[in-house]
Design brief:
Layout lengths: L1 E4 L15 E6 L5 E4 L10 E2 L11 E9 L2 E10 L6 E4 L2 E4 L26 E3 L3 E3 L4 E5 L6 E7 L2 E4 L7 E4 L3 E8 L5 E3 L3 E6 L7 E4 L2 E4 L9 E7 L2 E2 L7 E3 L5 E10 L5 E9 L11 H8 L2 E3 L6 E9 L2 E8 L5 E9 L2 E8 L6 E8 L5 E9 L2
Parallel strand pairs: 10-17
Antiparallel strand pairs: 1-4, 1-8, 2-3, 2-5, 5-6, 7-8, 9-11, 11-14, 12-13, 12-15, 15-16, 15-17, 18-19, 19-22, 20-21, 20-23, 23-24, 25-26, 26-29, 27-28, 27-30, 30-31
């Protein structure tokens, strides 16, 4: 400890007017445990080197000046095991330096480092699926100790109950499997990002006097293909917006649309009955004229077939040319300003034979049809 400053001195006996300092240290019980020798005529700061083990509680330091006619108390301060800094009592300033011994602990233990298991290997057919499909994901190198996870919009979570090696996913997201070994070590598989595309709209069709036609082509994908079926069997060459029924009786017809961008398909089914009194391929010119005042010329035709009709409302007019099997050979969409309708159909690309021209108005209704012959 060090006496930094004190006002004790022997001013009555110059030149020996410096104090004769000594200290007394008491334990927490008040008993004296140390009395230092007297430091005669000493200057401050004055350091006393001690080696006193400290226990719990407050200790006391009393500072005295030993004079010829007795002792003068310069002041007293208290300290404990954690005391730091300067201790002050009036003019007395004392600092203590408490040394805390370093305790060394020796211990022995064993550390086991287990190997990281192999990552789960995933098998899957594709990352792109259609709405309603089930994507099969399978871990091929483990049968147990697995947990499947999915992340949607950045939030990952375990899939409840998904602990087998096979997972059937039906929603988009990032999927992966985590394997935990018997030692508690884990390894993760690659992440598979599954996409499920929306199905194209149902290709709803109607029957107008044996002519099956898509009622709203605008609902079809931008890039598509069509296939007509009868009783579940694909009709060869029937891949257009229309199909003409030629058989007797009733039958189940269906139309499948394929989105050529996503590869997804959708199918519409309807029971249709053949009407022997109607014929979307042939008929008398009087019948056709009565249905829409449709005039075709020249007929037979070699190059261009002129189509004329009476007054029509403005809008989109659709024309379709069908062959004798009811297969669409030509299709046109014409922006009509209103009034008399006139249009030239390029017939030179048709093979020689019998054909029928169908006209659909802007509201989507088939309003007229008439036969013509492509001359040889």
């Amino acid at each position: 400890m060090t006496i930094v400053d004190t006002d004790c001195n022997d001013f009555n006996i110059p030149p020996a007017d410096k104090p004769d300092l000594f200290i007394i240290i008491t334990n927490p019980g008040g008993a004296t445990i140390y009395t230092s020798p007297v430091a005669t005529n000493t200057d401050v700061p004055k350091t006393f080197f001690l080696n006193i083990p400290l226990g719990n509680g407050n200790y006391g330091i009393e500072v005295f000046d030993d004079e010829l006619i007795g002792t003068e108390q310069c002041g007293s301060v208290n300290f404990n095991q954690t005391t730091t800094g300067l201790l002050i009592d009036g003019q007395l300033e004392v600092s203590v330096n408490i040394i805390h011994p370093i305790t060394t602990l020796n211990t022995l233990d064993s550390v086991y480092v287990y190997p990281i298991p192999d990552a789960p290997l995933l098998s899957f057919e594709s990352e792109e699926w259609c709405e309603g499909d089930s994507a099969l994901l399978e871990v091929t190198n483990y049968t147990g100790g697995l947990q499947w996870y999915v992340a949607v919009f950045g939030e990952s979570q375990p899939i409840a109950g998904a602990i087998s090696s096979v997972l059937q996913a039906q929603t988009p997201g990032d999927y992966w499997a985590v394997y935990t070994s018997g030692d508690g070590c884990t390894a993760s598989s690659e992440v598979v990002s599954l996409s499920f595309y929306t199905l194209p709209a149902l290709p709803v069709f109607s029957n107008d006097e044996n002519l099956l036609f898509v009622t709203n082509p605008a609902n079809l994908p931008l890039s598509y293909s069509l296939q007509w079926y009868q009783a579940g069997t694909a009709i060869p060459g029937a891949t257009d917006l229309t199909y003409c029924i030629t058989g007797e009786g009733s039958s189940d017809f269906s139309l499948e649309v394929t989105d050529l961008v996503t590869g997804c398909t959708n199918e519409y089914n309807s029971q249709s009955t053949y009407d022997p009194q109607a014929d979307c391929i042939s008929g008398s010119s009087e019948e056709f004229a009565a249905q829409g005042a449709l005039n075709l010329y020249p007929n037979p035709v070699f190059n261009e077939l002129t189509v004329e009709m009476g007054d029509m409302d403005s809008g989109i007019v659709e024309l379709a040319v069908l062959n004798g099997l009811g297969q669409t050979q030509l299709q046109f969409r014409v922006e009509h300003p209103g009034g008399e309708f006139v249009y030239q159909v390029p017939a030179h690309s048709l093979l020689p034979g019998w054909y029928v021209l169908l006209v659909k108005s802007s509201d989507g209704t088939w309003i007229a049809r008439a036969p013509f012959v492509r001359a040889d």
